[in-house]
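Entry type: protein chain
Record version: 2
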Amino acid sequence: MSKTTKININKSLKSDRPKLRVAAYCRVSTGSDAQLESLETQISHYKKYIKSRSDWSFAGLYYDEGISGTKKDKRVQLMQLIKDCEAKQIDFIITKSISRFSRNTTDCLELVRKLLELGIYIYFEKENINTGSMESELMLSILSSMAEGESNSISDNNKWSIKRRFQNGTYIISYPPYGYDNIDGEMVIIPDQEKIVKEVFMQTLSGMSTTTIADELNAKGIATKKGGSWHPSTIRGMLSNEKYTGDVIFQKTYTDSQFNRHNNNGEKDMYAIEHHHEAIISHEMFDAASALIRQRGKEKGISKGKKKYQNRYCFSGNIICGECGNTFKRRIHTSTTGKYVAWCCNTHIADIKSCSMQYIKDEDIKKAFITMQNKLVYARKQILKPLLNSLHSNSKDNNIARVKEIEKLLLQNTEQQETLTRFRIQGYLDPAVFSKEHNELLVQADNYRKEMEALNHTQSDDMTVILETTALLHFLNRASLITEFDDKIYEKFVNHIIVYSRQEIGFALKCGLTLRERM
């Protein structure tokens, strides 16, 4: 007689099964109130959706607001999501649609394939596509191409609108050059900066080089419009900017179908408007300075647009002398065995007594880089992984708390200023006392703002270092030992070179590390 045996389900095995760690990604392309409300709706939806699944655990929600989807590198939170996936913190990703994830077909497929290599799938709700199914890639390619086409259509409409404003003269220059500010859509002269602009043109006409002018401005502590340092290229850009004459030329640059920006060398129409705004420099002075710059170029055998006019070599402008801080210049040396390329300190070339740093061979720098990279391939786990962990462990909580505290202090400072003003109007305060107290409050407020700006800048720098370190580590994980110098790898990961002596140089990597190498 047959016997039936009942087998009970092992509930402990079922309950011990780990939950899938699921993250969501959202994006809105503009900062308008309606779009931000849409973002809030997406965030609320995904939090509820993920937490409602008993087999899922909430692994975080990543969102970018007011950012275009045409370039993945511009979206910090998307890059952070990829980094966390590489760190094995996420198992599955959900997002609203392909167009929310990326409007660039190449970027979309690249990101999907990168995640597939990590064993992580993406679910696109609108298109009902799960990248865990390999046949989905063709459909994904088609739909992402459609998303890119839609983005191109939007871009074309915007370009048409801008072109119309170029043609009828109603286009507003939102970010005017140094010397001007935008006030209610009009370009208005900034008096302090106007003096600097006139000085630059006068110094140029007196025979001073763009390098010397830039060095003098930096020595005086005068910042550029963006708050940075002056460079010869910055001065050349100022000397060739027609806006200082009160005229303006629209569409000097344009964006191609791949959303890359180029100088307009006749590919697109340009639109000139005379007497668009108040001039700082006369046409005569502008033309004379332009002619002088062109003449210098002819004497050196270079002209604008030629490769020699630009940084032609990967080491140009980023080899720094460890003794005087100046840059190195490329030169051709001759010996009994023939000619060779060398790099020499500009200060040493001008005056040996001012800097004793001797030249170094181009070949030796490249050999040192090869050695450095091969060492990193071997020791990446001992060097870069601890660095990355350290960067992640440095919490930004203290910075955030201090920013909030400063905001409160600024509010109190404003209230105190208003109270002082009210007391002065009512006659309760002597003018001298009011002036003293009010000035102290203004200085205090300015210090608060500078501190807040520094804190925000620090947070931004930290994120950049984390992304650069992650990129380098990801590259080295797949890299093999090299025997030849690759300028593309150098430019991608090295910020500059520091020359300590003819026997030792340091490679300052973009991730913040400086690695010394003997030559």
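Comment: Residues 431-478 form the longest helix (48 residues).
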